[in-house]
Amino acid sequence: MSDCLFCDIVEGRVKGDVVYRDESVVAFRDIRPQAPVHILIIPRKHVATILDLEANDQTLIGQIFLVIAKLVRDQGIAESGFRVVVNSGADAGQSVFHLHFHLLGGRRFGWPPG
Ligand code: 5GP
Ligand code: ZN
Asked: N or C: which end of the chain has fewer CB within 10 A?
């Protein structure tokens, strides 16, 4: 075990319901889903928050969005719509400090978010 839960999932030390992996990105189902589709997309490398990204992470972030588009199609929510969320810091309720993109779909969402 490391001190980062999502690093442990990337390394297989903690079990995750992984739906996609490549050399730089891993995606797995959220353990407490807030919608019929709720997948977390993360970089393999540990980046705590958006504010910790570096210039050479541009390709990584681009790859994350390409993976999100693939998952949206694979999960059948391209037509109905979906939401991508990054909670950052205390006001947004970030609870795991390894950058993760929530992909949510399969139901209608309210706006503004709570
Ligand atoms: P945050 O609140 O930081 O934006 O999102 C963290 C997310 O990680 C939450 O939606 C929470 O349900 C999810 N989560 C926390 N622990 C685990 C775990 O052990 N496995 C999985 N798959 N998701 C987790
Ligand atoms: Zn980590």
From this structure: C
